[in-house]
Design brief:
Elements: H1 13-45, H2 58-75, E1 82-85, H3 88-94, H4 97-110, H5 119-122, E2 123-130, E3 137-140, E4 146-150, E5 153-157, E6 165-170, E7 183-186, E8 192-196, E9 207-212, E10 218-222, E11 227-230, E12 235-240, E13 247-253, E14 263-271, E15 273-280, E16 286-293, E17 302-306, H6 308-311, E18 321-322, E19 328-332, E20 339-341, E21 347-349, E22 361-364, H7 366-373, E23 387-390, E24 401-406, E25 411-416, E26 421-427, H8 434-453, E27 461-464
Parallel strand pairs: 14-18
Antiparallel strand pairs: 1-27, 2-26, 3-4, 4-5, 5-6, 7-8, 8-9, 9-10, 11-12, 12-13, 13-14, 15-16, 16-17, 17-19, 20-21, 21-22, 22-23, 24-25, 25-26
C-alpha cells in the first residue's frame, strides 16, 4: 500500500501532535495486551501469581482481560507499532477513539493494578500522629477528615490528612460513660453522625444519638450497642451484646425528625458470644463477627458474610437471620472487632487474641475473601498470601488494636486501646494504582479525539516500526 510521507518541515504543528498521540495510542495498546497477559496468568495459575505482583481480584481481572482483547481485536494492532492517519472520518471510524476508549475502559473497569503490587503487599507504616487528648473513638468523614470524640466534645481535622484538630462543638443531652463512647459513625454523605454512649454514667443506660453534623442538633434513644455503622443516610446498623439470649445486629431507622417514630429492627440474631465488628461491602453484604465466644458454636473471631437480600429481609417483614445457622464463614481472626474495608476491598480485622504474641491488625486479601464468599473454604489465616498482620508496637505483646480505613486518602489507621497515638498505613511504592492510570488513558483518549477532529487537512502520513 502506498503512503504519502511528508517531510517534517512540511508538517503543521497539529499534524505533529497527531503523530505523537498516535504513538501514545500504540504504546497504550501494548499495555492493554500486558493487562490481558497478566489476567491470563492470574486465571491460569491463581495465587501463585502473587509473586508477580498480580492481585487476586479474579472477576475484575477477567473483565479487564476481555475488554483488553476486544480493544486489540478491534484495532487490529498486536505488538506492532504501525500508525496510519488517513483523514478524519476514517481514523475515527476504524480504530481511533474506539480503541482508546476501549483500552481506557479495560483499565478503569478492570479496577486492578498490574503496575504495582496491590495494597495488601505495599502497605507500610508511613506516619504517626496524635489524636486530641482523651479521644475515645473516631471516624472518617465523607471528605476524608477525621472526626474524634472526647467525652461529648466533637473535634474535626482541619483538612484531610492535616493531623491538626479543632473543637467543632458539643453533643447536646449527652450522657457518656466515664471511659468514653462506644462508637462514633459518620453517614456516607457526611450529613449526620451517630454516637453510642457506652451505658452512660450508670454504665447501664445504653443510648444511641443521631445528630445533624452541620448543627449537632439531634436526639438520643434507648438502644443496646457495641458498635454502629451507617447503612445509608437514615439507617444505622448496630451490633449489640447479649450473653443470655445471644447477641444481635439491628437497624435503627432514624428517618423522621421525631425520634419517637424511629424503629430498631433486629436483622441478625443468636450470635453465640459478644458482638464483634460489622462492615458492609460494596454490594451491601453484611460482615459480622463473634467478638468473644460463649455459647457458640462459632468461636471468638469468627466472621460471617450475610448476603444483602438475606440480612435485609427482616426490614420488610421477612425472617431474621440466625448467625450460627445462616451466612458463610469467611475467616476466623483475632476477636473480629473492629471490621473495615480498605479502598481495594481488603478486610481489616482488629481486636486481640488468646496468644500473647498475636496482637496485631490483620489484612485479609480481597481475592482470598472473594474465594471464601464464593463457597470455597474459609480464608487460611496462616497463608501469608491471604492474610497479612501488622503490629506497630512490636515491643509490647499485649496490645488490643482498633483499626479503620480512610477511603478518600487510601490509608488505614491502627490505634492501641485507650491510646492517642495513631499509626498510618498507606502504599509505600509511590506508583499510582491502575484505576488512576485508567483516568490518564481516558484523558489521552479524549485529547487524541479532539486533536483529530480539529485537523485542518485530510492528507495522510505514516509511521511504521
Amino acid at each position: 500500500m502506498s503512503r504519502m510521507i511528508r517531510k517534517p518541515e512540511d508538517l503543521p504543528v497539529i499534524d505533529v501532535l497527531v503523530v505523537v498521540l498516535s504513538v501514545y495510542r500504540a504504546l497504550l495498546s501494548m499495555l492493554c495486551d500486558v493487562l490481558a497477559c497478566c489476567a491470563f496468568l492470574r486465571c491460569a495459575f491463581g495465587p501463585d501469581c502473587f509473586a508477580l505482583g498480580i492481585p487476586a481480584l479474579s472477576t475484575r481481572v477477567a473483565l479487564g482481560f476481555f475488554c483488553g482483547r476486544i480493544a486489540s481485536w478491534r484495532g487490529r494492532r498486536l505488538w506492532k507499532v504501525e500508525i496510519m492517519v488517513v483523514g478524519r472520518s476514517r481514523f475515527l471510524g476504524r480504530n481511533g477513539v474506539w480503541v482508546l476508549a476501549a483500552m481506557a475502559l479495560a483499565y478503569w473497569v478492570g479496577g486492578v493494578n498490574v503496575v504495582r503490587a496491590d495494597l495488601f503487599q505495599s502497605y507500610s507504616n508511613m506516619e504517626v500522629f496524635e489524636l486530641p487528648v482523651g479521644t475515645s473513638v473516631f471516624d472518617v468523614g465523607a471528605d476524608g477528615r477525621i472526626i474524634a470524640l472526647v467525652g461529648a466534645d466533637v473535634y474535626i481535622e482541619n483538612v484531610a490528612g492535616g493531623r491538626s484538630f479543632l473543637l467543632y462543638g458539643t453533643l447536646p443531652g449527652a450522657d457518656i460513660a466515664s471511659f468514653g463512647a462506644a462508637f462514633i459513625a459518620v453517614s456516607p454523605d457526611g450529613t449526620r453522625i451517630s454516637v453510642g454512649n457506652n451505658g452512660g454514667a450508670s454504665f447501664g443506660d445504653f443510648q444511641v444519638g443521631v445528630f445533624d453534623f452541620s448543627t449537632l442538633t439531634g436526639d438520643w434513644v434507648a438502644a443496646d450497642h457495641f458498635v454502629g455503622l451507617w447503612m445509608d443516610g437514615s439507617r444505622l446498623i448496630i451490633a449489640a451484646s447479649d450473653f443470655v439470649n445471644g447477641s444481635t445486629v439491628t437497624v435503627l431507622d432514624a428517618f423522621d425528625a421525631d425520634s419517637a417514630n424511629w424503629t430498631n429492627t433486629t436483622v441478625v440474631e443468636n450470635i453465640g458470644g459478644a458482638a464483634g465488628g460489622i462492615a458492609l461491602d460494596g454490594a451491601g453484604n453484611l460482615f459480622a463477627g463473634n467478638g468473644f465466644s460463649s455459647s457458640g458454636p462459632s468461636g471468638t473471631g469468627a466472621v460471617k458474610i450475610f448476603l444483602a437480600d438475606d440480612w435485609t429481609a427482616a426490614l420488610s417483614g421477612g425472617a431474621v437471620v440466625d448467625f450460627e445457622i445462616g451466612g458463610v464463614l469467611v475467616v476466623d481472626l483475632l476477636s473480629a472487632s473492629p471490621l473495615a474495608f480498605d479502598v481495594e476491598g481488603n478486610l481489616l480485622v482488629g481486636g486481640g487474641d488468646a496468644a500473647p504474641d498475636d496482637d496485631s491488625v490483620a489484612i485479609v486479601r480481597a481475592g482470598a475473601l472473594s474465594d471464601a464468599v464464593a463457597g470455597m473454604s474459609a480464608v487460611d489465616v496462616n497463608d501469608p498470601l491471604a492474610v497479612r498482620r501488622v503490629d506497630p508496637i512490636a515491643a509490647n505483646d499485649f496490645n488490643f488494636y482498633s483499626c479503620g480505613a480512610n477511603l478518600v486518602l487510601g490509608e488505614f489507621y491502627v490505634r492501641d486501646f485507650g491510646a492517642s497515638t495513631v499509626y498510618v498505613y498507606r502504599d509505600s511504592s509511590g506508583v499510582p494504582a491502575l484505576g488512576e492510570w485508567g483516568m490518564v488513558c481516558m484523558s489521552l483518549s479524549l485529547l487524541s479525539a479532539g486533536t483529530v477532529i480539529v485537523r485542518r487537512s485530510a492528507g495522510q502520513f505514516g509511521l511504521a516500526a
